[in-house]
TrEMBL record:
Coiled coil ranges: none
The organism's place on the tree of life at top rank: Bacteria
Record-level Gene Ontology MF annotations: hydrolase activity
Keyword Hydrolase tagged: yes
Species of provenance: Leptospira bandrabouensis
Beta-lactamase-related domain: residues covered: 95-403
Keywords (A to Z) from UniProt: Hydrolase
InterPro entries, per the entry: AmpC-like, Beta-lactam-related, Beta-lactam/transpept-like
Protein name as catalogued: Class A beta-lactamase-related serine hydrolase
Keyword Cell membrane: no
């Protein structure tokens, strides 16, 4: 049964997708790839892990739901447009997500919103939208700048003097600015895992107390050089919330309610857990059957705690777009600044950042269109927002189920915006052509071991040369004056033919005189996966008893355990296990011994470059990482 639509002309809100009959039963659908941020399940045999690794390659390339462009003509045809948009939303829900909330704007100021699969339709249910919260944090800071309370290029120490006691990794660095944090180039740690998750039963006063304790931890953290590389930082955005409180003189929830939610007409949104007239929808995990997960309550409110509804998100975007005309959430100049491509580390990445919106270039005829957006993950919730500031079109999806199906949200949302944009403008959004390059990369001087946010890679000589990714060797073949990739599985006999895989390109270049490589494909701009940097490891190992498993006693810890061991290449490998939405997942970080008691995670990017400390307590090995003390077995 397809969802139906109804209009409320007085409030200019269109509510869609109310089921006329009982919900469809869950079907045993084929596997869908996990989203990029979920590593492999740990309780698998070797054969199953190989299967999941193959799936992860396709996840990594964001090709989980590539489909042919629809043939319908949408321009000014609202019946066809709504029918196809709502069918795509239902397809996402039917992929294995228990409940969805959605919103879309057709560029006419009317909010279209609804939900699917919500158990109690009489009760308004909020969904957590994770890091999309960061857009509202950026808007708050621009509001304060509009009111003359601060400047984005002020040193953050002006409002957070606690930053002055934060130790630096090496030399004395320049001051970190508010803009540095907004654009994820502050050099601050990615996360402070200690205390990141709170008890699911935590009350709002306790949550606010722990949020306001963040500056007290700065002396225990270590900063890298600002402006050196992009490194996504929830920790930094938590600190920005403290700046907002100190500059405005009011609590962060009060500030958001007064200056964003009320102005936009949002009645069911909060950074905290309680909101009159609505409640948080339950979260679930599982593919074939669904298990309720614990409520995710976090300390870093302004980094990712916002819960809201599809209708409220539509009202937010409507008020945000009104900023262009001087009657919205920002001044017209600040709205432009929010979407202006910000200066970043020296690189030729295609990935661009606003304040802090992510920006992707698309083509509409001969014109470049910069599509803006952000995703948010607070397992078991996953959300995606994408919009065009010029045509004032937007699409938003959020689901509450941790499973393979989550991978369908982002590509479906992108398809929906393409349809909506065509409805409004009569033009199609296309991917831009590859930038012209005159000379093919040369690999002399580029062979060796690299580390990136995706792990360890080896660039190997041969005919053709190869690059190892995720345990597989990809042939490097010349395409478009770059290297393309070919993958053969099962003893190198079976070639993998897949559109996005075949479109992947790798460029080798130097960055600050260091050999690096970058990757991109049909659905991912160059630089969006970070970059691999050539390393010359010395392979020294700590005393053997330190190569063991370390655990924490905190039942709500973001990191449940860490395993240190020597890998097949001689690296010290830190296998870091994360407890997310009731599931345990892991990342693997190659490390190098910096001193007898210090390990350094290699590379640049999220969690890379961070420090781990080794010590003994009562003769037993202890690991200190991200503010947590882990006890060795």
């Amino acid at each position: 049964m397809k969802p139906r639509s109804s209009k409320n002309t007085e409030s200019s809100v269109q509510s869609s997708a109310k089921f006329q009959t009982k919900e469809k039963e869950e079907s045993l659908l084929p596997f869908h790839p996990l989203p990029l941020f979920f590593p492999l399940p740990v309780s698998l045999n070797r054969k199953s892990k190989s299967f999941f690794l193959i799936l992860n390659i396709f996840i990594f390339l964001q090709c989980s739901s590539l489909q042919e462009k629809p043939k319908e003509v949408y321009h000014k045809d609202i019946a066809t447009t709504e029918k196809v948009v709502l069918s795509k939303i239902e397809e996402v829900r039917d992929s294995g997500i228990k409940s969805l909330s959605y919103m879309y704007l057709l560029g006419d100021g009317i909010v279209h919103s609804g939900s699917l699969g919500v158990d109690n339709k009489e009760q308004i249910k909020r969904f957590k939208i994770g890091s999309i919260t960061k857009l509202l944090t950026g808007i708050s800071l621009l509001q304060l700048q509009d009111n003359g309370k601060l400047q984005l290029d002020d040193p953050v120490s002006k409002y957070l003097p606690e930053v002055n006691v934060m130790p630096s990794r090496e030399k004395k660095y320049r001051e970190v600015t508010i803009r540095d944090i907004l654009t994820h180039q502050s050099g601050f740690p990615s996360d402070r895992a200690s205390g990141f998750f709170l008890s699911p039963e935590a009350k709002d006063p306790e949550i606010l107390d722990t949020f306001r304790s963040l500056p007290q931890t700065l002396s225990q953290m270590e900063k890298n050089e600002p402006g050196k590389a992009h490194s996504y930082s929830n920790f930094g955005f938590g600190l920005l919330g403290i700046v907002i409180e100190r500059v405005s003189g009011v609590g962060i929830e009060e500030y958001f309610q007064k200056n964003i939610f009320s102005k936009a007409g949002m009645k069911h949104s909060t950074l905290l857990e309680l909101n009159e007239g609505s409640e948080l929808v339950s979260g679930y995990s599982g593919l074939f059957w669904k298990t309720k997960t614990v409520r995710p309550v976090i300390r870093d409110l302004t980094a990712g705690s916002l819960s809201t509804t599809g209708e409220d998100m539509g009202l937010f975007m409507k008020a945000f777009f009104q900023s262009k005309r001087g009657s919205g959430l920002l001044s017209p100049s600040s709205f432009f600044e929010f979407h202006r491509i910000q200066k970043g580390p020296s690189s030729n990445f295609q990935m661009k950042l606003g304040l802090p919106v992510l920006m992707e270039e698309r083509k509409s005829g001969d014109k470049s269109i910069w599509i803006s957006g952000h995703s948010g993950s607070l397992p078991p919730f996953f959300a995606d927002l994408i919009y065009d500031p010029e045509s004032e079109t937007a699409s938003f999806l959020v689901g509450n189920t941790l499973s393979f199906a989550t991978a369908s949200i982002r590509p479906a949302n992108k398809e929906i915006l393409d349809i909506i944009y065509e409805y409004k403008t009569g033009l199609k959004l296309e991917s831009p052509p590859l930038p012209e390059r005159k000379n093919q990369n040369q690999l002399d001087g580029f062979y060796g071991l690299y580390v990136s946010p995706l792990g360890v890679h080896e660039v190997k000589q041969g005919n053709p040369p190869k690059i190892e990714m995720m345990g597989f060797d990809f042939d490097l073949v010349e395409k478009d004056n770059r290297f393309g990739t070919n993958l053969r599985l099962f003893f190198g006999l079976i070639p993998v033919k897949e559109k996005t895989l075949e479109s992947m390109r790798i460029e080798f270049e130097t960055w600050e005189e260091i050999p690096i490589f970058t990757m991109y494909s049909l659905n991912a701009a160059k630089g969006s996966w970070g970059f691999g940097v050539l390393v010359r490891p010395d392979f020294r190992l700590p005393e053997k008893s330190f190569l063991t498993t370390y655990k924490t006693k905190d039942p709500y810890s973001l990191i449940s355990r860490v395993e240190l061991k020597e890998d097949k290449r001689g690296f010290i490998n830190a296998k870091v296990f994360y407890s997310l939405g009731g599931m345990e997942n892991f990342n693997q970080f190659p490390c190098q011994l910096e001193s007898e008691s210090t390990l350094r995670i290699l590379g640049f990017g999220r969690n890379l470059g961070e420090r781990m400390e080794l010590k003994r307590i009562d003769g037993k090995p202890v690991l200190l990482y991200s503010g947590i003390q882990f006890l060795g077995e």
